[in-house]
Fold each of these.
Amino acid sequence: MNWLDIGALSDIPQRGARLVKTMHGCVAVFRTGDDEVFAIDDRCPHKGGPLSEGIVHGHAVTCPLHNMVISLESGLAQGADQGAVATYPARVEDGRILLDAKRLIRGAAA
Amino acid sequence: MKQKLVIIGAGMASGRVIEHLLAGDPDGWDITLFNAEPRGNYNRIMLSPVLSGEKTYQDIVIHDDAFYTGHNITCRFGEPVVRIDRKNKVVYSNAGGAPYDKLLIATGSAPFIIPVAGKDLPGVVTYRDLDDTNAMMAAAEKPGGRAVVIGGGLLGLEAAAGLKARGMEVTVIHLMGHLMERQLDPAAGYLLQKDLEARGIAVHCKGATKAILGKDHVEAVLLEDGTVYPADMVCMAVGIRPETRLATDAALDVARGVNVTDQMVTSDPDILAVGECVEHDSQLFGLVAPLYDQARVVAATLLGQDAAFAPVQTATKLKVTGVDLFSAGDFADGAGREDIVYRDPARGVYKRLVIEKDRLVGAVMYGDTADGPWFFGLIKDGADIAPMRDTLIFGPAYQGGAQADPLAAVAALPPDAEICGCNGICKGAITAAIDAGASTLADIRATTKASASCGTCTGLVEQVLASTLGDAFQMPAAQPICGCTDLTHEDVRRLIKARGLKSMPAVMQELGWKTPCGCHVCRPALNFYLLADWPQDYTDDPQSRFVNERNHANIQKDGTYSVVPRMWGGMTNPRELRAIADAAEKYAIPAVKVTGGQRIDLLGVQKEHLPHIWADLNAAGLVSGHAYSKGLRTVKTCVGTDFCRFGTQDSTGLGIKLEKRLWGSWTPHKVKLAVSGCPRNCAESTCKDVGIICVDSGFEIGVGGAAGMDLKETERLAKVETEAEAIDLTVAFVQLYREHAKYLDRPYKWLAKVGLDWVQAQIVDNPANRAALIKRFDLSQSIYQRDPWADRATPQAQADFAPLADLTKEAAE
Ligand SMILES: Cc1cc2nc3c(=O)[nH]c(=O)nc-3n(C[C@H](O)[C@H](O)[C@H](O)COP(=O)(O)OP(=O)(O)OC[C@H]3O[C@@H](n4cnc5c(N)ncnc54)[C@H](O)[C@@H]3O)c2cc1C
Ligand code: SF4
Ligand code: FES
């Protein structure tokens, strides 16, 4: 892995998200209430809603367009819904957010 | 000729007699109703939720003034009867007499006062009626107050929980070895004590009160063992005795209670008695279920029909939110009795069944009481349980190999299983009502009275509806907010106010949220309730808002946003229009549209451009139109007297004043206003949340209109003469809606629930309340009336709206 510093943990509000633009579209980087970070594609499997704008609860986010709930850990739709988004390795070190640059640059397909 | 019926005591028992009597013979009786309390019949058993703040007195009234006047009942409330003259058949209060053909004594019971020194000190209260409840609520106002409750039975514990909920420090002193010893065995009593202690209520069992100490007011309680508990208030809840003084003075047969026959007649054939004041077959009564049976018999006897009272077993529940206990039958140890016990310490569950000769004779359950009614049915029927003995403790869902799904337990109940203990309604009566067309909880309450008293069986009744009607039944209004809680919106709003919960963690902790930080359904609602109720203490949480309110713009289906500047009362000018045109060009806005709210919508803006376009529009004097918010949207106006030949008032001017006053306020759902200059109604006032129509003599204010999925015309709130009054009423209405409505209920939906009459009583007929509402609204506005665009014109905000990092320049390997 090739960890890339993309910003400070404090740049994202608790239970919020910010975007990282890549060649393959936007990746949403979430900070949960317990200060963990998760990176997933910013495209809802339903109709492409911007997941980064959803309400974050536990380790899940609710899509702002039609309320599909997506697990930040697995990228899978929860409950009765079907669908999945790509997830990317992410971690916090000394208050900085690190993402796996290789995966990000290669995109979800890899 | 009508017969004269005089009733002494307007309590729960006599109230039920009146209902049966009116149903049986609406015109046969001329009824005079005396009551010592200065009010009519209310649901006494619901005083505990009033004390804890979960309900108000209004919620628990059973018979209101309209009921009494509608049935021509002469009410003499606040007039205790002091004497019965049996010879001349007249009863007397201090205000005068009333002759009777038939007399009904329904005086209930009086709290028992232990004869210790200090029992008469101010600050010592009992727990029987609304005045007692109000006295306790007043005592709890004092911050950090300490209460001692003497008596750890049903009443004492409900009082303790209520006082605790109101913020008092509470100690319960109980004479016996464990709480509620008449209903619980020691194991269940222990779990109950543990639960109460976990809520911060101190419990002292085996404590005998020696004296109540204090000079001019209670200061402490002294126990026989020397313990002293400081106290600002003492609630004595050690038991009740039947109120028989009048009957004794009138030389009727009285033992512990007024003796009655199976027909509920006393030793005088023209005098009947009902309720807690009676003794039947050496038995006294302290729960409403048997009293309601008595009431049926009293009415039948008065109507000359045959009926006989036969007491049935009763079951007990404690009405303390979050404490689940159930007890029925006899559970003393004894020769020939066997127990089946089930415990789940981790969940705090305890169940015990007592069996004698293959019959179930007693059941005590704590922590999980769902199967209570089924066991109670087995006890009442004396059913042979031998065939299912091995799995009996697991409840009905396990009998006959049925799967344990939530509805199965209810579906498996036999028709004669009791569902509503208060009213003695069995499942069969409810399914019969459903067969006859009832399809909602309200229908069932109206036709069978099930769930209409203490309400603890509401869930069961709904499950009967669900299991009988299948998919045709939608779980109605009493739905929890979401999966994170079992409480409804209404419960949560009440508890936030009553318990002074001022932050999201406080709500979630105190009300037992099941998830760590809620979900997308409850968090926006809680955020609104908290900011509406505690504007000065609570800080708005953007992360608990939907995207539109967090980003102050409406998200579109492609992830872009729309931007709508405010145009006060729909007025604009060339400078504003030029700024809008410039912005549309500068940011290459794909679509510009005139909205139905008389303003201009710029559609298709990229998120990162938002703070920039706002800054540009701000510079021209434009502010956010809040077109995205659950808050004030627009005030649509017509040109009124300024230009129109029909105009009667300055409708545009009034619209602008209203918009300037109300903008920026958050509300349960969006709020749209309109002001039309005359009844031609060009601003479409009659379908707005608040719509004003100007006439020559003043302003007609309508509320609760809708023109969305539902179409509804406004209802007339009031007509006023001056513009100032029109503004006052509008502001007060919006604040009342902010304080009471469920999140995401538009005003018309809320109005349908509370009724226009109630709203009028609050703000039109009650100037003091109106002024207080306006004051609270203005206080909130002093904090929340801020232009979000101006707030976000900073470089920091601009950075927050942009991506955190841009990796599009990094080359792929
Ligand atoms: C806080 C509380 C919680 C309770 N919880 C439950 C529960 O969960 N379940 C349950 O089944 N039961 C419960 N009960 C008991 C239930 O409320 C009573 O059994 C029931 O109200 C008795 O009805 P009643 O008509 O006999 O008497 P009441 O309802 O007490 O009515 C008697 C009325 O007569 C009036 N009166 C007395 N003397 C005179 C006079 N001389 N002249 C004129 N009027 C007079 C009194 O002022 C009173 O209004 C509870 C009681 C209390 C106080
Ligand atoms: S509502 Fe009356 S005053 Fe207003 S524009 Fe229409 S006709 Fe004129
Ligand atoms: S686009 Fe996410 S739920 Fe529809």
Note: Chain A has a mean pLDDT of 89.
Amino acid sequence: MRWPPAPWGRKGRVLPILVLAACSGPQSMLDPAGGQAARIGVMGWILLAGCAFVYAVVLLWLLWALARRHRWVEPGGVLPPQAGVERRLTNGLVAWVVGTVLILFAFVAASYAVDKSLTHLANREEVVVEVEGKQWWWTVRYPDDDPSRSITTANEIHLPVGVPVRVKLKAADVIHSLWIPNLHGKMDLIPGRDNELFLTADREGIFRGQCAEFCGLQHAHMALDVIVHSRAAFDAWKEAQLAPAPAPADEALARGQALFLTSACTMCHGIRGTPASASVAPDLTHLASRRSIAAGALPYNRGNLAGWIADPQRIKPGNHMPLVGVPPSDLQALVAYLDSLK
Amino acid sequence: MSSLSRNAVSLALLGVLLLAACEREERSYRGEPVGEVKPGAIVQGTLYAGAPSPPPPQRREYEGNAYHVSEGKRLFEWFNCSGCHAHGGGDIGPPLMDEVWIYGGELENIAATIVEGRPNGMPSFRNKIPDQQLWQIAAYVRSMQREVRKDVAPGRDDHMAVTPGEQNQPVTPPKPGGVASPSSEGRGP
Ligand SMILES: [Cu+2]
């Protein structure tokens, strides 16, 4: 037998392989990088297998109904009662209902077991991270008993590998939801209520989290990077973040800093080590060490940074950073200064 | 026409009607290009010679638009106006939700107050607030005493509300009052 030509042609045969390739990656629950995600992944496979089985049975039944020999009844005629068929149908239906209930109970048991194993992983912590969802970005804090050693950054969570972490979740305006599929399931961030999530990443890597609860215009552009390093690299990152912003190294950078401090930017953004101390927008103290701009909307580089400041409303329409209208002659100096905030 | 197709037509019409309700107002996220919008002529008070002139287009755009007014409400907190004016009830700064205006209660007056500052302790926000945001805040300040349409005034608070939302405030027509400070002298109507 010959297969009909595929509409997508020969190359299309690679398609199924591509689909499989999508299973691993920085934002995939099928590629767990932590105990919690692994357990939730098992539950996912159990549900998938159960549903696939039911689906197959229903389809087979339908096929059988289509293929079997049909008896023909004259128009207006009556089908003579057939005790045998009636009985078989009744038995089949009862078996179907019993089977459905059994499968549902099996799902409940599996889900209970997975939940229980997740609670065993909870309430262990060596590192505490506080994530606050805002329209449409994330504040990330590492609180410390000594306030001068707590860190505030944005749109980026750094974690040491193999260390249990407590993530405290808050929301400033509306309900958001944090979903880092490689590490854990979703958890809502609710204004006025503190939720939490326990994570242990068991391999190094860069993963992507995403807001998973519709929260307004730019919900789709509300992502964050999760960077899992070795303990030593994590501690080094923390030390670097604790330092105030580097002072401008030359004339040009000093001009950029002055532009920042005398314009609208300081109404919203803070840069530690300068008089800018507002906190309603992302902290820019170590902006240039981050991987992305505006909650994953753009990868971080100088060109994108200039594009963002020149017109944030083109990149993320409706977001809460207004078009400030920096004259082109000042833009480069401003961008050079921000790009020096490593 | 069969009843089926008649039903279909009425359904389609209904759908169109529903769609018409989708666009209540235009949201403009970007404001005018830099430098084209500035607080208009500064007027102290509401006394004019002759018939009152119609409100300038600027005003209608911002005061008739619920999006702009609610953005103004957010910025009023973000820029810490609340730190001195409480949520409009007044503290170090005078109350903004009553009908008395020292420096005039028109949109242009309020914008001018924010940009220039006022001598008895109101800081100047010149170059610190982009134009569109300036008008949004000014429109919100006017909504505090319900000088904007009811369906435009904000109806909810992000914080614990002590007073009913702006939407449910009684309308209080503005009147000039208070003690105008020296900066306003010689600038009367
Ligand atoms: Cu969201």
Note: The mean pLDDT of chain A is 90.
Amino acid sequence: MTMTDDTTGVLGQRLLRREDPALLTGEARYTSDLPIPGALHLAVLRSPYARARIVSVDTSAAASMPGVTAVFSGADLADTWAGPMPCAWPVTEDMKSPTHYPLAVGQANYVGDGVACVLANSATAARDALDAIEVEYEPLEAVIDLEDALSDRVVIHDEIGTNRSYTWDLKIEESEGQVDQAFADAAYSVKERYIQQRLIPAAMEPRAVAAIPQPFGGDMTLYSATQVPHILKVMTALTLGIPEHQLRVVAPAVGGGFGSKLNVYAEELLCVALAKRTGSPVRWTETRSEGNQATIHGRGQIQDIELAADSDGRLTAVRVRLIGDMGAYLQLVTPGVPLLGAFLYAGVYELPKAYDFSCTSVFTNMTPTDAYRGAGRPEATYAIERAMDALAAEIGIDPLELRRRNFIPTASYPYEAMTGLVYDSGDHDRAATLAAEMIDYAGVRARQETQNVPGATKRLGIGVSTYFEMCGLAPSRVLASLNYGAGGWEAATVRVLPTNKIQVVTGTAPHGQGHETAWSMIVAEKMGVSPDDVDVLHSDTAIAPLGLDTYGSRSLSVGGVAIAIACDKVIDKAKQIAAHQLEANPDDLEFSGGEFRVAGSPDRAMPLAAVAFEAFTAHNLPDGLEPNLEAHTTYDPPNFSWPFGTHMCLVEVDTETGQVDVLKYVAVDDCGNQVNPLIVDGQVHGGVVQGLAQALYEEAVYDADGNLQTSTLAEYLVPAASDVPAIDTGHTITPSPTNQLGVKGIGEAGTIASTPAVINAIVDALSGLGVRDVKMPASPNTVWRAINEAQGGQQ
Amino acid sequence: MIPAAFDYVRAGSAAEAIQLIGQYGDEAKFLAGGHSLVPAMKLRLAQPTVLVDIGRVSDLSYIRDGGDHIAIGALTRHMDVEKSPVLAEHVPLLAHAAGHVGDPQVRHRGTIGGSLAHADPASDLPATTLALGATYVAEGPNGTREIAAADFYQGYFTSALAPDEMLTEIRVPKMGGAGWSFQKFNRRAQDWAIVGVAAWQRGSECGVGLVNMASTPVLASSVAAAIAGGASAAEAAEAAASEADPQADLNASVEYRVHLAKVLTRRALEAAGG
Ligand SMILES: Cc1cc2nc3c(=O)[nH]c(=O)nc-3n(C[C@H](O)[C@H](O)[C@H](O)COP(=O)(O)OP(=O)(O)OC[C@H]3O[C@@H](n4cnc5c(N)ncnc54)[C@H](O)[C@@H]3O)c2cc1C
């Protein structure tokens, strides 16, 4: 490790998470658990139509129901908003974005779009009153199919005159026409279309909001089950015209997000606006069906990918055309999601500067999409990894061998990719070799020879997926070049208290990741104290005023590194105090095991505890030095972090029923140095299950009229523990050279790698029957149909 | 997920329950384990104004040897059916099928009577008791009557019970050592079956019930006839869908359901082992 040499050996230990006892015993307080005397309950009436003109809203009957305080239509609140709902990522100058308010005015644009709302003295009274609101709708034709949307046959939003939001290109070629030439010269090429179905994030804790106004002075506290308290504060201030310094945002215990809580939602703005208006606290908790309809969806892309290769199978060009499904409106970072994938369509492979990417994003009459675990990168990895298998089949070589021929060589790191981004470090062959050993790749290939014989009804398949997770969002200047509306830095404060206990204030906003455990380990390692002596403060803008929150696998490689830097600053200051006390030159002091020692005179030493107390009493500090031991840092990373790895999946497919049985799953992930391998394994397990869920189970299904068919968890199939295989995790460690901890992110790796590994395994199992592709989710019915179609039989 | 307002009364006996249901009339409903009724109420698909809770009528929770049959009280929980040594010995198919209902939480709350009375063709126990030739006992204001399982199911969530009638007992003939198999095909372990097959066989005699293949549970009598006529399992299974009328849903097309019924029936008969 490139830590200071004061290693006490905390880093790298499988410490149990300090967060878990409270979470597991129910002691943790989520937003809905907060006791708020006198709170009014908000309920939102949602459009039952995917697209309808709102002719009239009659709230009078509802307003007179018992317990009801007020009822509002969208029109009633139209003058409440200082601006429309925010989108922070205008990816192109000419991007089109329909005006979007917390409650629709004039026209509802998806099933679940808020149309009116009730405030009442109980959640039950508010819910009952919804049934008494009379809305006259004039149903309009809905647009569900992406290509149909692109045709502008029916234009959803009159105000922008088209369903096309933007077209964004990333064309990189050394000389004009090089991509076309590469395809013309290719010894082999493939052209594939993949569909990224819409997914529903389904975090364990539904969204919940409570806004509490101060009776005097106009201050407002907003509690929300959010991943982004800091971003939410800025955006709420802007949207509602509340002075930012009068707004405090708190994210109490938050039960998962996966991107779905990386947003600014209508209900957050409604609670604040109505709390301001009524002077009473206003709270709201989402029901599961509301969550399925009105919390963002993930994925939703049509991908056309073409690969060109030379006679050895080495890639010579990649061309990608995407259609992105934005849903009815742009939410916080909706339009940027496809861009995050744009840099990864060559995967971990060497590609000359012959790359052509274009994405056109369209509006539809469905729930808005936005970032969902991996955001653009799982989609990209799926496309390249499926296409690599198609190319291997075309050439007639083993898919693992094709990948090995194309891996970026370890010796070329740091590697400048065709896009101009620099990949920090990697060793793809080592990860692939380890995964192949763990799953007995050669042995499986031999078993296939005997098992997958003509007439066999249980066929064995193995799928390979290699990946990069471009994460640690992000260097602020790179974000600027992508038109993103904020930076990518993270803030940290480290404060040594008089009794040598340490407070860390972080701008990250954990919602299940275990930051309190991990951050305390970093500080313990740096400062030579026990992790138990470190408290981590976060997710309250009154305590942690600066931060950019948790998403994009950024918290450790940006926020954790910020903490390490703040520790260094504290140690520097403490050293001056210790040197003064020991009558030594600061440069002659060494710090290890929580103690300053004069080099060469082991008996002249001063523990950090004594320094902390000196800093507190300030009785005898060096001239000019301020009292107390505290340091603040804002760290802007010089690069993304580039975790990588190889996943392999072994399946058995029952060709009679189409049932896929995952027999074994191997994940080899390299996220550089590991602060806590237990947490790393947890992130990999959860990520793999989420990716496997996309491959096998989950899809937000709409009918032709835009009704969500999967509005409860009975229809939207989130797999349970009994439905997923044991996951064998393996790791290689290639430290990142760009930060002092040598760390990279791991939050999204599992989701990025696993989906193509599973589908590649299914197609591998069925390739002998002529199957070339299987749609996601590969339900038994879908697999059975794919076999029948390949066999030229019935559907 | 907030149900419409309703009143709640608790019955201490079957007689009291029937009296209460009569008293409150059409909009009242029995509440047993609540695992079908309460989810429907939360989505406001069901809006009864009164719930008559029969969950604590403990003298209707039993499993007794009735000589040629086993008698099961309507309020017996799925878990008790699954774990019953009496059923394991005499009607193992039913005990096994009960072990495939939902997940352990569902099985600890849900009752066999609630499952049958709810008449969901996708549920496991209606088709299983149908295949076994069970008889249900209902009690109403005018006394007690017996209804053959084959006459009980009339359509989606519709049974032969009158609104003021309560299911009190299920009588299942002893299987007498017949081979059996329960084939439940679903995507997640806790789900209802996409298609399910409950089958027993003793020589050329067999019973096959199909789950989720029509608006009611289906007795596949053509399969039984084929087996009686000497057909092999594979041959007989070709007739599996003859009495069925399946619908498409998110998990399966009609063609796929028919195909699955055949595959699963063949597998069930092979396992029941003729
Ligand atoms: C998550 C989940 C998963 C499930 N999975 C399965 C599954 O895989 N397979 C399966 O078969 N079932 C499944 N079920 C349903 C479960 O088996 C229910 O317990 C059962 O269907 C209903 O039994 P209950 O006692 O809960 O009835 P309740 O919900 O209390 O009542 C259901 C209906 O029957 C009526 N009723 C109840 N008892 C009587 C009676 N004695 N006489 C007259 N009417 C009566 C009620 O008035 C109501 O209309 C699942 C349920 C859940 C919640």
Note: Residues 489-635 of chain A form a domain with the Aldehyde Oxidoreductase; domain 4 fold (CATH 3.30.365.10).
